[in-house]
Structure formats: C-alpha cells, structure tokens
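cache lookup: miss for this entity combination. No prior model stored, computing from scratch. Input as submitted by user K.M.:
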Amino acid sequence: MSAQDLVARAQKWATEQPWRLYGSQISILVRNELRRNLFTRRRIGIYLLAWVPVLIILTHVIFDRNQPAGPAQIETDTQVLAGIVQLYYFRLGIFFACMAIFTWLFRGEMVERTLHYQFLVPVRREVLVVGKFLAGSVVAIVLFETAVLACFYVMYSRFGSTGKSYVFGGPGLGQLGSYLLVTALACIGYGAVFLALSLLFKNPIVPGVVIMGWETIAAIFPDWAQMLTVTFYLKHLCPVSLPLSGPLAIFTIVAEPVPPFVAVLGLLLLSITILALSCFLIHRMEITYTAE
Amino acid sequence: MAVYKRRYNPYGGTLTPQWSRFFVLTRYAFAELFKSRFFVILLILSLVPILFFAGYIFVANNKTVQLLMQMRSAGLFSVENEYFIMIMVAQTQVAFLLNCWVGPVLIAGDLTNGALPLFLSRPFSRADYVLGKLAALGLLLSAVTWIPGLLLFSLQAGLARNGWIWSHMWMVVPIIFCSAIWILMLSLISLAVSASVKLRIVATGVIFISFFIPAGLGEMYNSIMGSYWGRLLNFTEMFRLILAKGFRERTGLLGPLSRNEIPVPAAWGVLILVCVLSVVILNARLKAREVVRG
Amino acid sequence: MTPDARQIVFENVSKFYGEVLGVNKVSFTLQPGITSLVGPNGSGKTTLMNLMTGLIRPSQGAIYVLGLTPQQPIEFFRHVGYCTQFDSFPTGTTGYDFIYWPLRLHGFAHDQAAKLTDEALQRAGMAQVARRKVAGYSKGMRQRIRLAQAIAHHPCVLVLDEPLNGLDPMARAESIALFEAIARQGMHVMISSHILEEVDRISDRVVLMSSGYVVAEGQIREVRREVRDHPMQILVRCSNAARLAAAAFELDHVVEAKILNDGQGVLVRTRDAEQFYLLLNKIVSGGLVEVDAVAPADDDVDSIYQYLIGSDGGPA
C-alpha cells in the first residue's frame, strides 16, 4: 500500500468519525467526573497534600513577621519557594496526588464495581480514557495551581512594596508563570503515567512507587533514559536552580540543557504516547470484579 | 433396622488454648499469602541481597579467593559494624516494601468483606485479632531483617578467627532491637492504615504516603523555619539515627554528623509515638459492628 | 455466516477464565421475543450475557447482536440495554442522575434526556424516589432503578440478568408486564432467572445451560418433544378412565397409564404424544369416553429443567 493510499484512508477515516459526538461525550464525562470527584470528603487527603505547604508558609509569615524583610530575605525565600515547588510539589505532592486521582479513575471504579456502567453506554473506550484523563487533569491542575499561587502570594506578601516590586517589576511574575506551567505539565505527565499503570496493574501503587524510584535515579542515566521520565522535562522549565548538596543534589542534576519549548513539547508527546498505550490497554480490559 | 434418636451433640474434643488462639489467624494469613505468586516472588527477591552479603563475608574471610580474584589488599574486605549497618539499612527497606504489599491484604480484605463481625462473634477478642495479624507481619518481616542478620553474623563468626565473635557479640543486641522497633512500627502503621481506609489499593498508597509525605513536609518546615526538628517527621531517618547509635557508628556513614542532630531519645520517642497512635487508630476502627451509611 | 440485522447470533463462543471454563462452544440464533436463560448457579448465564454486551471478550467465536458487535459501541449500545446483576452504584448518585447522565452520553440533549429519564422512572415505578440517593434504596428499588436505566434509551435488545430478584410480587408482576410489552413491539428481551414458574409463563423460548454448556435451546414445547429419554406426561380428565387406560396400554409407546385417585382421569406417560392424541380422537369419536380436558403435564420449563439438568443442578 502506497503512502498516498494510507493518507487517503486516514482522511476517509477522519471524515467518517462523529467528532462532534466525541466532543460532547468528553465534555459530559468531564463534567460528571468533576461533579463526583472535585469537591468531596474523600478528597480531603489530596487537598491536604496540596495545601499543607501554604499553611507552613503562613506559619512562617506569622512567626517571623518581626524579622527584617529586605532583598536578601527575598532571595532566601525565593530559594525556599523553589525548594517547595521542586522538591515537595513535583517529587511528592503532585506525584502522590496524581497517583490518588488518576489511578482511581478506572481502578477505583473497578474496586467499587461500577465500571460496567461506563462500558455499557455508546461511548468508544478511547473517548472514555480521554474524558476521564481530562477530568483528572482538571482536578489536579485546579488544586495544585491554586496551591502554588497561594504559596507564592503568602511568601511575597509579607515583604510589602519590596515584594510587590520583586513580583511585578522583577523576576517574580516570570517565576510564577513558570511554576504554574510546570505544575500543569507535572499533573498531565504524572496523570498519564498513573492512568496507564491503573489499567496495567490491579494494584498500581507498588509499580507507582517503583516509578518514583526511577524518576529519582534516572538523573544518573544517559539522556535517552532520562527522556522517559517526567522530571527530565520539568527540571528544564524550573526558573530557579537549587544549590543542593549531598544526596538531595540528585534531584537537581540536569544532564544537558534543553530549550523550554522542547521540554514542553517533549512532555506532552510523552503524555500522549502513554495515553495511546492506555487506549490500547482499555480495549483489553474486561469486567471481572471477582478478580479484584 | 434401628432408629436412632438424633439430637445435638456439642464438640467435645480439645480446643486451641486461649493464649495461642491468635496464631490461627496467623496460620491462615500465611496460607492466603503464599497462594499469591507475586508475593512468593517478592519474598524471594527480598532475600536475594542476603546472598550477596553472605558472598561478601565468605570472600572477606577467604584469602585464597581474594588471591584468585587478585583483590587482596589490607582493609578492602572488612566485616565490622559498618557492614552490618549496611545490611540492616538494605533489609529494613526491603521489609518496608514487603510490608506495603502484605499489610493491606491482612486487614483491609476483612473489613471490605465484612468479615470482622464474623471473627469477633467467636471466642476471639479484638486484641487476639490484632495480635494474629501482627504476628503474621512480624514473622514475615523478621524473616527478611534480624533473622538473616543473625545468620550473617553467625557466618562471619564462624569464618573469622581471633575471637571475632566475642569482640563483636554486642552487635546481636542492635540487630535484634533495631529490627524489632522497625518491624513493630511498620506493622502497626500498616494495620492502622488498612483498618482506616478498607480498600487495599488505597491502603497501599496511604502507607507509602505516610512515610514519604511527612518526611517531605518536615524538610520543608526546616527550610522555611530555619529549624532541624522537622526531621522528626522522617521516620526512616529517625530509625537510622537509632541504628547508628546502636551500632556505635561514628564515621558519618548514615549522613553527616553535625551539632544539629536530633537526640536519639527523641528518635525513639517519635517511633514509639507512631506505634501508640497506630494502636489508638486500630482500637477505634476495629469494631464488631459495621455502620452502613445510606 | 452473515449476521442478520434482526437476530442475536452466537457462533461457537467459548470463554475461559484461565483454566476455568465459563462457557464452551455455544452456538445459537435468537429471534425477537422473550428468551430465558435458565440454569443452576455457575452454569454460565451471566458469562453469556457479559459476552453478549462486551463486558468480557470471548476466548473463541463471535457474537452478533442485530448484526453489530460491542466493538462498535456507538451503534451497539444505542440498540442494547443491559441490566446487570452487580448491585453497586456510583458513590453519591441519585436515582435520577443514575439514569440521566448515561442518556447524555447517548447524545441526547438535556431536555430529551430529562424527558426520557422521567419516562423510564415512571415505567419502573421509581418516580417518587428518584431524587433520593441510591445508597438509601431497598434491594427491590435498586433492582428497579437498574431496570429503568437499561430501558431508558428505548433499546431494541434488552438483556436482564436476574431482573426479578428482590422484587415484591406486585413489582414482579409489573416488571413481567413491562417485558411482555417490550417483546410485543418486536424487540429482543433476554432474561436469566431462577424463578422457573415465571420464566415458563413469559418466555417464547428458553436456553438451558449447565456447567458452561448449552443443554437445550428453542421453544419450550419443542425442547420438551426433543427430550426423548423422559416420556411425555399427558393428563386426560374423562368419564371412563379405566377404558381409556386399557386402550392406551395397547400402544407400544405408552409406558404408563395411571388412573387418578378420584377416578375421573388418567395420567399417561408416552414416548409419542402425537400417536396418543390420534388414539384419543378415535376413542372420543367412538363415544367410548367423554373427555373434559386434555393437557400436557410436563412441557414446562420446570420439568425440562428437572429432566435435563437435574434437581441438584448438575447434568442429569
């Protein structure tokens, strides 16, 4: 079959698909999942994961309100904020929250014996994967973006006009933009990984922690291996580098600098590839609740 | 044809003694665990490092092998307290992984399936139930921590000469006691989490989170507040402090020694506090009734 | 074989769960009407329904429902409604939402989905409690809300796994009337049930299953006729029972003729019912016996079940 035939077949396939229906189904799936999962008591643990740093920074602001708040202190606090985002949020907070949110999308329904309802409606399983993934992404992104935003606000608000000029007249706003972008990308990247794991394993938590180990030690491997991690792309987008020493320095190794747009595209490409794998896996999925 | 009068005859044989009845649960827990192929593989993998450690001890005590390997040099192979610390660190991490897999299977399954009222409606107390499950975890984790630790110690004692055993006998105490506190803490956390969240998959996640997230938050607290007490939330590090003290380690093998060190009693205090908290949670969650909310 | 757009076709379907047999080499074709799947626990009824709706995939063979397969979910599930046996619901959902949201996924706009939801709730008798959370429903209500969801989009094929379980007699009668009404519209209704009396009353045909195999399939009377190991029982209420019994004994295929206790009839067991009816005609036209009623005594699902599967649930 020639390339032309292939293109023609692809075009024919594309025109035959009910894209509008897919779109409306995805939108309904997202709304339904958000309604069920965004503001529920069962999510308290995840809210805490996102908001505890804000509380700690708030405590710091209250207790250290009498300390001098000059430019040197801003530099220190910028480093602290970078540590919170890069070491806590990316390595732990977002990682575990995505583990909880995205593995629950399918595996949770399997555990609660309700997945068959999703499989008995006129929705392609790929659409189901995309809909659920988007819903999970919205939940994770809303939660962590607001938390990062709150951290940023609380951290610099105590500096008054100095803080304001650092944010609006200095590098602050750019850093915030980068953090928000990286947070969203982290949610998408880890989300795709955990969605695929939940379709691959009955208990995806243990493989999830293996992934965590891989994400940590991949820094000492060659570039091509690092490209199979989410943190590889995130590290290139972080606006502030951390002067870490000792074992923690492994979190900051950047083997070879990559332009930001390549990092963004690379992570999106990695996520799409993993989502494609999820689409393949969900076709093999059967409803056998007794095996859970 | 004879017609026999049928009437109820209660069991008149011997019963398992009350004090050891909890072992019935332990026995069945093991039977259930060994049905899982994944668990058997995990257990075998957990013991693989021991082979390497034993191999090292063998080489360290065998000059012929060292000559054959052309690796003979003074001090290259040393089996002292640092070596046993390494063994303990490796095996306690292995125990952590094993516990994450096994712990939720033990209690979460019973709670999900509503089996607890069935157990507790027999001459079997809540303490017996917890003891039975704890014994299953304790025995299992012992099999990958202090038991191989002592075996390796015995191997070294057998191969080494010049009274090595007597000059190092004190190490038996930290091998057993450090393992014991780690096993107790892991098991209790695992059981408390399983009893709280019921679903196995969630329980596994929460056990992981309960180790990693407090450690991360502690570090964050330290960097924001300029303190070092946040490390109290890092249970693994607290255990390593105890381990270092127990093995009389002074070289900084388990992290840099500094003045900003958490005192060892505080480390003990944290681990014991975690154990007590877990017991409180277990006491609150394990009831012979089930509340179904509509 | 070309799949027919009106039939449900199972072509040599097998399903194995590892080494455990689910169903083995199942082949049959179903026409519209009410079909009952009958068999003991673990005989493969639910497996067959799950295979049909794509919840599990066959290890071997193919299934066509109205010429469609579950691999074409958009067309397939517009025509198929499945009320499963799984008694679980999405957390926190109300009866109304449970029906409304899947309808939105069918592509119905809000107004239409709301209208269909109300209609389904009415038909299942659940309109009064629709806004309550499903977690607070009784077993019968949960059964009915699942039924309402399965019929809400007006499917052509309705698959019902033990739909009468947990229903009180009133609700059961209403549900049966609903199934009959759907079947009368030329649709497929596939029911699995243990309540043989009701199956017998409503089914156009049965599929008898045992240990993963289809033991018999077809209209109940046809199936009964095929069961030659067990002579058919015919009850004749008549005036001169002894005369009829004597005449019946003269036929080779009659294995037993038993005069009823009140002496007002005979229970005949015969291997050839047609021949016996011819004899009966002859006797009646000869004026020897006055017949009040003639009825087959064991051409119901219950008897077929006993003969083919046995009371213990295993093959007879």
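stored under new cache key. The interface with chain B takes residues 133, 135-136 of chain C (CB under 8 Å).
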